[in-house]
Structures are given as structure tokens and as C-alpha cells.
Amino acid sequence: MNKSGLITLAVADDHPVLLAGMTSLFSNSARHKIVGQADCADASMELVKALTPDVIVMDLSMPGDVFRTIAQIVATAPQTKVVVFTAYCSIDSALKALDAGATGFVLKGSPSSELFEAIDMVMSGQMFVTREYASEVMNGLRDRARRQALSDAVKLNVREQQIIGHLMQARTNREIATELRISEKTVKHYMTGLMAKLKARNRVEVVIAASQNHDADSAMRP
Description:
Blueprint: E1 7-12, H1 16-27, E2 32-38, H2 41-51, E3 55-58, H3 66-76, E4 81-86, H4 91-100, E5 104-107, H5 112-123, E6 128-129, H6 131-152, H7 158-167, H8 173-180, H9 184-197, H10 203-220
Parallel strand pairs: 1-2, 1-3, 3-4, 4-5, 5-6
Helix pairs in contact: 2-3, 3-4, 4-6, 8-9
């Protein structure tokens, strides 16, 4: 936002009529100032580099790799927020755009008020998804987070789980060896592996880390 309090905008779309329409829409707003236009992914990146607008409103169907450009904008000009304004209504495209770093996703068939609302929300540090798909997109984000949490959980084999079970009962290596009918040296070998897996420095930290790992895994399962 510049010193006058206006939100500076860049608009990027390869359809001249839509580009002119968006420019006209924002030009009639007392709160927004159009500072540049682009008609492809590469031009969008150059525009942001040159003008650092507060927000760039981008179509997904422009020539070039738009998703990669979104990621580049976010990485090199974090002060510029990206709002996708597109006819693509798939949940996958919304998730991909948000993954790349966009914080707004608005369908072109939505009322113009949604685009203004999206700009206000991303400027305040929030995310906006067009209402028609908001719940589905949020569910998609949650499902992916759940899958990621499960994949990040440390996988322990049966023997490691048995040893941790005995550790939780404060048993010594010798007692664990006797109970499991393995050598004490083998127990020590498993302990070394557990400390590495769970990033623990001693027996107590192994127990704590194993408990946390189990709780996180269980919380993510249906």
C-alpha cells in the first residue's frame, strides 16, 4: 500500500477484453490503483520485479508456466500478494495455486465483489477462496495435511515398539533382553537406532518422543 493509502494492483490476463474489463473495474475504485498489466506468465514476473505492486491478479490460462511464476513471485517479491482470478474451477487447480503461494483464488463467474473482498483479505494476511468452492478446497488442504502428517510420523517396527513398551515400564536393558529373549547387546543396538530415529539423546527422551509420535499418528487416523 502506497503513502496515499491506495492498494497498488497489477493485472495479468491474456484475453484483451477481460484485461480491459479488470482494468476498468479497478480504475473506478477510489481504493485501488492499477500500476501495470501483463498478458503472460513471464511478463507477470517482470512486472512484479519492476513495480512491486501490493497485489497481482493473475489468470491461470495465460501462456507460460503460471504456477511456477506464482512461486517465483512469492519467493522474490514476498510483499506482493497473488490473487488467482480464473475460469478454471477444479479443486486441483485451486490447491496447486495455493501450494505455489497464491493467497487468493476467485472464479471469473463470481460477483466482482468477491474479487475486491479477496484483495482486502490477502492484504490483511488472510486467505480467500471463492465461496462456491471454499469448503471443498479447505477439505482438500486438510486431507493433504493429514496424509503429510502420517508420512512424517516415524515408523517403528514391531521389535522397536516392544522395546519402547518396556522402556515405558522403566525396565533396564538386561530386563528387556530377558523378557524378549534376545541379548543385551541386541537391546543396546535397538536403543541406538531408536535414539537416531526419534532424535533423542537418552532413554527418557526416547520414551517422550515415542509417546508424542504415537499421539500425532493416532490423532490423524480416522
